[in-house]
Amino acid sequence: MTADHRESDPLRWLPAKTLAEIDKARRALESVLGERLESAFVVGAAMNPARGDRALAPEIIAVIAAEGLRKMRALAEALADPMKSGVRVRVVTHDELARSADVFALEVAEWKARHRVVAGRDVLASIEVDRAHLRHALELELRGLSRRIRNRVLAGVAAGPTRDDPARALRDGLDRLLVAAHHLFVLAGREAPSDEAALVDALASLIAIEPAPLRAVTRSIREAKQSPNPLDALDALSVAVDGAASWVDKWDETSGQQVQS
After folding, report:
1. Are the beta carbons of 111 and 61 closer than 8 angstroms?
2. Is 64:91 a contact under the CB 8 Å cutoff?
3. Which tens digit of pLDDT belongs to each residue from 71-108?
4. Most Cβ neighbours (<10 Å): which of 11, 26, 147, 159?
């Protein structure tokens, strides 16, 4: 990231050390790939200032020309230092990205919604995600999320944190729910609130659930002063996740409305 980028850089909530590691990764990508590097952009937790883990493992998507795949050995060597420090770099070719907006609709839609280009051009600007594909991806995500949270919390409570950490399972579940929530509003043709607390309340209103339990568990997870009771938090998250899945299930992409069963 150059100095002129830093003045308006939305990653300003990341500590200087994390920004330096991102820049190391960028320079490594550019030095090895040269013109074969079409774009590199930051996605994921680093783009969300509300997440407590935003600085832990910044994720960079590197979009490259297909011939750049022959540089994987040199790229692995060049990226060793920043990746050992926690940076995650995922490499996709231009064609893979262009052809994945249907089968990975939610992932691509989330990248488009929240990313920061650190090298090359914004290749996401020309990629469109079809609403029908997004609807399917959202339901798939939410149905799977409901099962994952339930079973991870069950394993952690029953067998202890060596099997799974219930607090981590709940935090991961909340993060994925709120990603999905943003795109529920996209699907509905409405603007999603940018503030996380407002998004929680708006989601509760959209899917017609009582907002207080979800609001409380979100605050407890984000403040990290005291972990919520895992089974009580599971109840609150499950109501929201299942409610969101049901809302998507009733959405008809042709009419742009929910259909009553």
Report:
1. yes
2. yes
3. 999 999 999 999 999 999 999 999 999 999 999 999 99
4. 26
